[in-house]
Amino acid sequence: MSTAAAHGLDAHLVVDRGGFRLDLRLRAAPGETVALLGPNGAGKTTALRALAGLEALTEGHIALDGVLLDRPGTGGRWTPPEHRRIGVVFQDYLLFPHLNAADNIAFGPRRRGLGRAEARALAADWLDRVGLGEFAKRRPGQLSGGQAQRVALARALATDPALLLLDEPLAALDARTRLDTRVELHRHLAGLAGPAVLVTHDPVDALMLADRLVVVEDGRAVQEGDGESVTARPRTDYIARLVGLNLYRGSASGRTVRLASGEVLATAEALEGDSFAAFAPSAVALFRTEPDGSPRNTWRAVVAGVHRHGDHLRVQLDGPLRAAADVTPAAAAQLGLEPGQEVWAAVKAAEIRAYPA
């Protein structure tokens, strides 16, 4: 095993289940939080369960701080979940309903051999750290969603895990509680010595909590990098939709990209070969008749739908170039936008980013 792999997480997760196959290479350095981001059914939770020892590997390996935990096959190894130094925070927290908050947190340290008094003292310390010192004797049914989430996090961290796994930890919270709890979770992740792997389908959670994103679709990583690089240069329609960009793939020649549909987009950058072209819905201008003036990309389109998007209206356009456009309510009223209406769309070349595919 390489020196780099001897610290943190080094895993190749291959899981065959029915007609689905997960094949994901995953590394996380000490102190690094990696978010697995992707649509439902992409394989994110399967990956987390495999790391925790709750899902059997078909092939591959899992090593943590240089110690091999899992490698199927002859001469391989499998470490039971309870013997892995891994803390897990599940989506629905899975607190023991018959135990109070303090005993929930003390459970893991007690299982690892800590005495009763020491485990209780540790639980009290962790309750203070997450701001719930006065809730020690409350059972899960007496806690709010945000409080239960913090108890679950404290329970996972009280075992001093070498790896922390979080499966949609904020999904069950209402919007206000989610905002406050996200800030609290970020603080704890920043102070974590070991790596953390966060599973989410929410791009805001991923961008706010993770140092690096791994986008998973159909059981495979399709893009990886920090939040800025992934959102600036999406490589799949899923990512483009998440960050609100129109994305197209084609062949670049100079400052133009020819799409598979035959349309040609003028772009700001000069490239050659297989490329992506992307632009924001806010860069699309709509007109009743063909516009004139400065050189730009123009095409006929048909309004497929109009719905509110923040302070603007998001207009879905069909035609040779399917796209989304953002317009103000005043502009929509002036244009009389409604489904089935024909319009002209225009995007300046300077607004279209082109990058290698």
Description:
The chain has 357 residues and is an alpha+beta fold. The chain has 2 domains: 237 residues, P-loop containing nucleotide triphosphate hydrolases (Rossmann fold, 3-Layer(aba) Sandwich), CATH 3.40.50.300; 113 residues, RNA polymerase II/Efflux pump adaptor protein, barrel-sandwich hybrid domain (OB fold (Dihydrolipoamide Acetyltransferase, E2P)). Helices cover 25% and strands 36% of the residues. It contains 9 helices and 19 strands. A hairpin with a 5-residue loop joins strand 5 and strand 6. Helix 2 packs across helix 3 and helix 2 runs parallel beside helix 4.
Short description:
Helices cover 25% and strands 36% of the residues. By secondary structure, it is an alpha+beta fold.
Characteristics:
357 residues, alpha+beta, Rossmann fold, OB fold (Dihydrolipoamide Acetyltransferase, E2P), 2 domains, six-stranded mixed sheet, disordered N terminus
Helices and strands in order:
Elements: E1 9-17, E2 20-28, E3 33-37, H1 44-52, E4 59-64, E5 67-71, E6 77-78, E7 86-89, H2 101-111, H3 116-129, H4 145-157, E8 163-167, H5 175-190, E9 196-200, H6 203-209, E10 212-217, E11 220-225, H7 227-232, H8 237-243, E12 246-259, E13 264-279, E14 285-287, E15 297-309, E16 312-318, E17 323-327, H9 329-335, E18 342-347, E19 353-356
Parallel strand pairs: 3-9, 3-10, 7-8, 8-9
Antiparallel strand pairs: 1-2, 1-4, 4-5, 5-6, 10-11, 12-13, 13-19, 14-18, 15-16, 15-18, 16-17
Helix pairs in contact: 2-3, 2-4, 3-4, 4-5
